[in-house]
Amino acid sequence: MDKRTTPIAKIFLIAVFLILYVPIFFLIYYSFNSGGTMSHFKGFTLDWYRQLFGDTRMFIIVLNTLVIALLSSLSATVIGVFGALAIYSYKRRAKNTLLSFNNVLIVSPDVIIGASFLILFTMAGIQLGFMSVLLSHIAFSIPIVVLLVLPKLNEMRPSLIDAARDLGASNWHVLSKVVLPFISPGILAGFFMALTYSLDDFAVTFFVTGNGFTTLSVEIYSLARRGISLHINALSAVLFLFTIVLVIVYYFISRRSSMKTMGVRK
To answer: What is the CATH number of the domain that holds 209?
Structure first.
């Protein structure tokens, strides 16, 4: 690489990170403002966090969001892994066709997907609420899991499966002892990506939530429409901290899983 471009690349990278993170830290900074506005920092206070943690309704919304995210990501991971295995087993032309259908769901606008789910649930007579949100999150998370698991399957040498079968392993043992351990980094990546998408989703969730049930993304939107409140800043700061913890946990788990996979290869 040309050394003359290195400083420019570093400056560009720093600028990108500043654009991404400065607004977040600005928001967090004013969550400790006793003045109640984001125009002038009057003094340090934890009142907004006390108000946040003392809000029973907000605690229920956070619980709803976490339950939806965990259940949908777990379900989508299981379905997505078997979907990736099914796509992998097909011949090249059928595999490319199925993968194209899978990718269309990822690049489709969330508004269209949300409206489609709303029409589907209305026609099926499913009441909008917990179940409609859960089913929607499972549906849009499955293609993500498939897309992250398939590359690991393509990396796997067919000789591993052939060797296991030559040693008398059944199809279940081949799957549980050879295939799943090898693709475990892709499975973990798919799970955490589905979890992140579920926690972050607004557009689809906004269409399929009903009266009496909501998630954090929809609640933050409704709070923001009422006007700027440092209560939102405190909530956003907590969510940002939770996201950082989630990324750190994923890093260590994926690193440990990769080391195990390298041991299997050796």
So the answer is: 1.10.3720.10
Which residue has 């006793």 as its token pair?
Answer: 34
**CA nearest neighbour of 145 among 94, 74, 202:** 74
Q: Residue 163: which domain range?
A: 56-265
Q: With a threshold of 0.70, does the pTM exceed it?
A: yes
Q: Is residue 67 part of a domain?
A: yes
Residue 217 lies in a domain: yes
Number of domains composing the chain: 1
Please report where in the chains the tokens 């990108």 appear, as a residue.
16
Q: Does residue 195 contact residue 70 with C-beta atoms inside 8 Å?
A: yes
Angle between helix 230-265 and 6-30 (nearest 10):
130
Tokens 């295995």 locate to 85
Q: How many CB atoms lie within 10 A of CB 140?
A: 22
Looking at residue 184, what is its pLDDT?
A: 85
